[in-house]
Structures are given as C-alpha cells and as structure tokens.
Amino acid sequence: MKFSTKAIHVGQEPESVTGAVTVPLFQTSTYAQIEIGKHTGFEYARTQNPTRFAWEENLAALEEGIAAFAFGSGTAAVDTVMRLLNAGDHVIMAEDMYGGTYRLATKVLERFGLTFSFVDMRDPANVAKAVTDRTAMIYTETPTNPMMTLTDLVEVAKVARQHGVLMVVDNTFASPYFQRPLTLGADIVVHSATKYLGGHSDLVSGIVATNRDDIAERLKFLQNAVGAVPGPFECWLLLRSSKTLAVRMDRHQSNAMQIAAYCASHPRVQVTHYPGLPSHPQHALAQRQMSGFGGMISIELGSLAAATAFTKALKVFTLAESLGGVESLVCHPVSMTHGSIPKEQRDRLGVTEGLVRLSVGIEDVEDLLADLEQAFQHI
Ligand SMILES: *Cc1c(COP(=O)(O)O)cnc(C)c1O
Fold it and tell me: Whose CA is nearest to atom 4 of ligand 1?
C-alpha cells in the first residue's frame, strides 16, 4: 500500500458493532471485566484505549515501523524515549534543535545523571568524534528548528551501528510524508504531533515510532509505567488529520517553494533558509533523503527592529509559536521558542534577533505573497 492509502485505512477498519467507518472515540477510563481474571483485553485506559491503538497503528505504518506509542505532547514523547537510558549514560545531541528539547536535556535530565554533548550534526565526523565509552544514544532533528540545517541520516546511522548506540530522529518538520528516518537507519522516530500530524493548530500531542521489537517492548512498558499518555480525543483528531496529511504536505510544500524563491530574491531579506532552494548548503542531501522540503522557512531580516516592523505588519500570517497548521504563522525564535538556548550558542547557530520563521500554511499562495510584500514595505 502506498502512503495516502495507508493514512486513510491502516488501523481504521469499519468498527465491528455498527460498521461505523470512522474509528469511534472511546472516551472511557475503564472497562467492565467479565469475571475475576477474565477481561476483553482492555482493563484500564492508561494502558489500553482502542482509539489510541488505532492512531498508533496508523502512524507506525506511515513511518514504516513496527509499532508506535502516543504521548500527551512531543516533549512527553522525548522524555519517555530518554527513559530508555540509565544514569551515567551519554547522549550526543544536535546543537541546533528545538529549544524545549535542549531545556529538557540540560535543566531536567542532567539532574538524573545523563550527560549530553551538543554537536554540529551537519558533519557526521563531529558525531563520530563525540562518541565516548558511555555514549548510549545519538539524538538529532532534521531539518532543524529554526535554521533548517540537515543531518545526513544514513551516515550518522553508520556511526550509531558501529558503536552499538541508539539513533533517535525528531521528524516533526518533515513529517513521514517527506522523510522516513527508520528506512535510513534510525531506531526511533519522535514527533511533536502538535505540528504537521495534527495540522490544524487545535491539539497538543506526541508520538514515537520504532522498527525494533526490543525497543517497542520497552517503550510500551515505559508509556504505561510513566503514564504520559494522550486523551482519546487527541488520538481521534489525529486519525482525522492523518487522512489529509499527504494533500496538506503537498500544498505546504508548493506554497513554501514559491515563497522561499520570492524571499531569496527580495532586497529586504538577507538570507533565506529553506532546504528546497538550490542555494541551501545541503540542498543535495535534502534531495537524497527527503521526498519534499516541507513548509518551514527562516529569513534573516538583519535587526530586531526589522523583524518587529515586519511581523507587526503581516495580516494573513499570524504571530504565534508552533507550526505545521493549515494557517500561516510567523514566529520570532529568539524571543518566542528559543529563549532557553544560551545567547553564545544562538549566535553561533545564526539564531539572531533579526531571524524570523515562517510556517507556510495552505492558503492561496497569491494572498500569502501579497501579505509578505506589503509587510516588507514596513521595514
Ligand atoms: C514543538 C516541537 C517539539 C515539542 O513538542 P510539543 O508537542 O510542543 O511538546 C519537539 N520537537 C520539535 C521539532 C518541535 O517543533
């Protein structure tokens, strides 16, 4: 089965009692048992929920994994993945990544005895150099938020194999429609389902997929033992969103391609970061490991004053955190999403006060281009 057919059908057989073609919302905390020691396979909803199981089966199929586990947020998903490790273990993490993941690592997980090295993952040699005898995991995000840099997943997976360590990829920006890390050598894929998987800016959720039986078993245990599960309604909404993931991603991408090209030639824009542009330093890698470039673009406007004037003047783009919804959003990473990353590190990465991130929605591209043009005039 191909991608869209899987998205619409896997985990979503018509329901057995009434034939409902949509997976019902099982909004329950517990299930009646037949007699002591005898039940239907459903005992308590932290452990088992049919709506959640349907969503997990669906996403596992889209990522070409064997199992997936849903969580209450992307951050909860990352946290549970980290609980595969033990105190004293070392993790090699991408230095350019979602601020909340960096905060979880440095402000929470280090207190429990994990250690982290943050490296520039653009060069797989940096990853190999950072391996120690305590290294247990390589964790990356590609493309990254907000600088749109890439990790060569095949090459970094080789390093992981060679040293027998887990490789985890945050696939939030690309979605499984454009990139499937498990097929490129990763062991675990993480998503903030709040973004493209949800796609309508109306829920917060997370999900993890794997293609290894041993990891699936441990994640299943941790999902129940730690308990950061989503409610069934989120899973129900995610199943509905999954059905349109392919058509939404195609439109995000075609709109973003036109907007990136427009920004790249605009006099008010100093740099346009978008992996779909031939000028992107890793464009060839993007073509190799992704089947599309997604809907996220970052532009450098040169100063906080320019970023402020520009974002204030936009009318169709809404100034807000988050991304991946049908509506276009604009965000100022330094003040909004990346405040927890130290200034020296931000400066090194290029996350400056003049940097603005666009989450290109699926509106008519002419309206988006006109909105950007009038806002550039206010700089
Ligand atoms: C938003 C985001 C997260 C965190 O997910 P939440 O659902 O907000 O907890 C993790 N990684 C990336 C790349 C994100 O964009």
Answer: 74
Q: Which amino acid is at 12?
A: Q
What token pair was written down for 252?
């995000």
Q: What are 309's two structure tokens?
A: 């004037």
- List b or e across 351-360, with b for residues whose CB sees 16 or more CB atoms inside 10 angstroms: bbbbbbbbbb
Let me know if 274 is a catalytic residue: no
- Ligand 1 close to Cβ of residue 320 (< 6 A): no
Query: From the CA of 131, how far away is ligand 1's center (Å)?
Result: 26
Residue 204, SS3?
coil
**Residue 256 to residue 286: CA distance in whole angstroms:** 15
Question: What tens digit of pLDDT does each residue of 221-273 get?
Answer: 999 999 999 999 999 999 999 999 999 999 999 999 999 999 999 999 999 99
Residue with tokens 């057989």: 13
- For residue 341, pLDDT over 80 is answered with no
Q: What domains appear along the chain, each with residue ranges and CATH number?
A: 3-242 (3.40.640.10), 246-376 (3.90.1150.10)
Q: State the DSSP H helix or E strand holding residue 90, giving kind and residue range, or none if neither.
A: strand 90-94
Please name every residue paired with 189 in a beta bridge, in sequence order, or none if there are none.
169, 209
Give the span between the Cα atoms of 250 and 292, in whole angstroms.
8
Which of 335, 344, 333, 361 has the alpha carbon at shortest distance from 146?
333
Q: Ligand 1 atom 6: the closest Cα is on which residue?
A: 74
pTM score: 0.97
Judge whether 262 counts as a catalytic residue: no
Which residues lie below 8 Å from residue 227, measured CB to CB, with a gap of 6+?
A: 46
Nearest CA to ligand 1 atom 1: 192
Alpha-carbon span 275 to 163, nearest angstrom: 30
241 Cβ below 6 A of ligand 1: no
Dihedral sign computed on CA atoms, order 174, 176, 178, 184? positive
- Is 102 marked active-site? no
Q: Tell me if 145 CB under 6 Å of ligand 1.
A: yes
**Confidence tier at 96 by pLDDT (50, 70, 90):** confident
